[in-house]
Specification:
The chain has a six-stranded parallel sheet, with helices on both faces. It has a four-stranded parallel sheet with strand order 3-4-5-6, sandwiched between helices. A two-stranded parallel sheet has the order 1-2. By secondary structure, the chain is of the alpha/beta class. Helix content is 38%, strand content 15%.
Length: 342
């Protein structure tokens, strides 16, 4: 699945491989599946291919997966196993019990997600118990560690993602229209419907480009058509430079995030970002009136529209925006993970 987890896990694999580590990636993919992002040449890919990752696995499929993962782990004998997201980590941890493999749980979401899913309180308890079985728990921001129980924090390390820094002289900003850009999965988490609803409260010269795919696509297209808004839908793509360069603002109306890669990428290109103050990951990356506009509350189309209008009237400094993410370099990204291995 195209997304931040795939991109950053591949970047991590590439960076570790370049430093002399032997890296093997194990996934639930079937053999014909191909990666969305470029695969590091020196990294081995083993595909389990049991069941359908898009469908809730049966009990038999779960047992088969555990056996397959244990077989691979017994053959590879890794020094460290990393499970990205708690579900994958749980599979890894159960499959490697007794093999003497240190395990790291790489949490790529803020625990705020449990506030929005069915049975969230119960699932949060079980998730924390699973994470406690890890040697280390990697979170995206220091502030996220405070959202976990105190008895779990001693295991935590902070491993933010990285973002490429680019030249600022390639911008092609449109002066006739105010171009709003959204990039991401079209899901409940990303909350794109509130952005489309906000368009009805914006001036006629505001336009929106949505790049992504997901289960909410048809509903979003239908809503945009009924509102007669200037909204363009495009499929996911790997090269987004021209979209960042031609946009006036990136809008990320998510309910929660981990380390929102597209937000960091926009900031690295000097592009201001608008998002909700109660969305984890937004206040960690955006400084109000400096690198973007933080909308009041959560899931409020009027508040979001006001923030977008304010962004259109604010004279942002692209250099100041870019400087706000200068600490998230690739070198630091790899060093953080090496520290997590200790």
């Amino acid at each position: 699945m195209a997304g931040g987890v795939e991109k950053m896990s591949l970047d991590l694999a590439r960076g570790l491989s370049e430093k002399g580590y032997e890296v093997v990636i194990l996934s639930l993919d079937k053999e014909p599946n191909t990666p969305f992002f470029e695969w590091p040449a020196s990294v081995i890919w083993i595909k389990i291919g049991i069941g359908d990752p898009n469908v809730r696995a049966s009990f038999i499929s779960r047992i088969q997966r555990l056996k397959a993962i244990r077989k691979v782990a017994s053959e590879v004998r890794p020094s460290i196993g990393i499970g990205f997201q708690v579900g994958s980590f749980a599979l890894l941890r159960m499959a490697t019990l007794g093999l003497g493999i240190r395990t790291i749980a790489a949490e790529r979401n803020s625990p705020d997600l449990f506030n929005y899913i069915r049975g969230g309180k119960t699932k949060r308890i079980f998730s924390n118990l699973i994470l406690f079985s890890a040697s280390r728990v990697a979170v995206q921001f220091e502030s996220y560690s405070l959202k976990y129980p105190s008895w779990l924090r001693s295991k935590m390390v902070v491993t933010p993602n990285w973002v490429e820094r680019v030249a600022l002289d390639t911008f092609l900003r449109n002066t006739d229209t105010f171009q709003i850009l959204f990039i991401g999965r079209l899901t409940f988490q990303k909350n794109v419907m509130v952005l489309i609803n906000a368009m009805s409260n914006l001036p006629e010269n505001f336009q929106l480009t949505i790049i992504g795919d997901g289960p909410d696509l048809k509903n979003l297209e239908s809503r945009a058509a009924r509102l007669h808004q200037k909204v363009i839908f495009l499929r996911p793509q790997t090269d987004l430079k021209s979209f960042y360069s031609s946009a006036n603002v990136l809008c990320m109306p998510s309910r929660w995030e981990g380390f929102p890669n597209v937000v960091a990428e926009a900031l690295a290109r000097g592009l201001p970002v608008v998002g909700f103050e109660l969305c984890s990951g937004i206040p960690e990356l955006i400084t109000h009136d400096i690198s973007g506009i933080v909308a009041k509350g959560m899931d409020n189309s009027e508040s979001l529209a006001l923030a977008l209008i304010r962004a259109s009237m604010t004279n942002f400094s692209p250099l100041d925006i870019q400087t706000s993410v200068k600490g998230y370099s690739f070198e630091q990204f790899i060093r953080n993970w090496e520290d997590a291995f200790k």
